[in-house]
Amino acid sequence: MRKFRVFFSFTLLISFLTPVSNAIAAPLSGVTWTFTTDNVNMGLSGVSPYVEKLSSGLDRLYFASPLALPDPIMVVDCTDSGSCARQTLSSRFNPDATIVTLKDGTRRLFMVNMSPSSGKSIQFATLGASGLSHGSATSIGVAGSDVSSAETAWGVPDAVVLPDGRVRVYWVIKDPATGKPNLLEALASATSTDASANTFIRDAGFRLTGGFVDSKILRAKDNDWVMIVSTGPEAGTQFLYIATSSDGLTWQVSSSPISSSSESALDPTGYEVSSNTWRIYYASAAPGKTINRTYTIKRATLSWSPAPSATPSPNASATPSASATPSASATPSASALPSVNAKITTITCTKGKLIKKVSKKTAPKCPSGWKKK
To answer: What is the DSSP secondary-structure string of 255-270?
Structure first.
């Protein structure tokens, strides 16, 4: 995540936004996205979590916390009921850890190295079998992944294995339009040359621009990518949004947030638990724009339901009109960007302490037993 304030003894940061030109399997309009905060209290204070599901059924969280000092991060294993036990690290893990499993079974750790003398860089290392140690770290070595210590709008790697086995790393960089690190941010990426993920090449352009931050790829399949992002801290209260893509390079971001205005929600991470349903962990703080806030780790459930299939008219033409032909342009125009005055309407529903965001194209309603806030 990227905030321009000092968290504990080191600076934490983040990024970006953009749209799609191809059809996507998980559309942003005509579907209902539901984000429900789970009724668990894990008692975790911190930011920038990364989660993975262990074979034991536990959720392992790597995150920055004041309780981790003098180490940059701490690791806990959590049950479904929210009971978490701290694990002992055998190696020093730097901030913003993210982990992938390569096609040959190798576990690869990506993280941020912060050095007062040499600046900051995104590094990767082989993760030990326990997940609590790693080998020597190496920079990914592409333009924009190594910067001076003065660059604040930078970092937060998010690594994902592509359908063909290569690895792509996303990270935050200052907005190319303004060049100002503390205003709007952008999302850059680099992709490995092969499935060994030892050599990376910077992808052309930017994945997202415009001030969205905290990327986490939740699904990476052919023609079917899902990402969760947060807005940056510039405007005050931060919100979570959904983005979709056909190739992981060009993205369309939902025009309405999925999180509530009752909190600042940022640093999302998660994994798919069943078809179109994800378990999400995120950092939460009081709403509004403040410099020093207390951040806690929360858990939520994200899901989407496709719109009912429309029944075609008996007189409908089987041949689409020329106006329905998609544009050949790979880069959408500015007019194709999602409008904040959306076609989608979002309402907040409550049930006791639970909060659910329901987004729908027309007249969203709270589920049975829930009340509209």
So the answer is: SS-SS-TTSEEEEEEE
Confidence of residue 309 (pLDDT cuts 50, 70, 90): low
Task: Determine the distance from the C-alpha atom of residue 317 to the mean position of all C-alpha atoms in its chain, rounded to a whole number.
Answer: 41
Helix (H) or strand (E) holding 316: none
- Per-residue pLDDT tens over the stretch 317-354: 434 333 333 333 333 333 333 333 344 567 777 777 67
Dihedral (CA of 306, 309, 310, 315) sign: positive
- Report the C-alpha gap between 214 and 155 in whole angstroms: 10
Per-residue model confidence as pLDDT tens digits over 172-206: 887 666 555 445 788 899 999 999 999 999 999 99
**With a threshold of 0.85, does the pTM exceed it?**
no
Token pair of 154 as six digits: 């930078």
Per-residue tokens: 59: 């959720």
Q: Is 133 helix (H, G, I), strand (E, B) or coil?
A: coil
Question: Exposed/middle/buried for 191, CB within 10 Å: 0-12, 13-18, 19+?
Answer: middle
CA dist 301 and 355 (Å) reads 11
Contact 34, 356 (CB under 8 A): yes
Dihedral sign computed on CA atoms, order 91, 94, 99, 101: negative
Q: Is 220 exposed, middle or buried (0-12, 13-18, 19+ CB in 10 A)?
A: middle
Specify whether the CB–CB gap between 159 and 167 falls below 8 A.
yes
Is 215 within 8 Å of 229 (Cβ atoms)? yes
Q: Which tokens belong to 334?
A: 């500015």
Convert 274-298 into a string of H (helix), E (strand) and C (coil).
ECCEEEEEEEEECCCCCCCCCCEEE
Quick one: which of 48, 248, 61, 276 has its CA closest to 167? 248
Separation between Cα atoms, residue 33 and residue 50, nearest integer Å: 22
Q: What does the alpha-carbon distance between residue 90 and residue 78 come to, in Å, rounded to a whole number? A: 19
State the CB neighbour count (10 A cutoff) for residue 114. Answer: 18
Contacts of 325 (CB under 8 A, 6+ apart): none
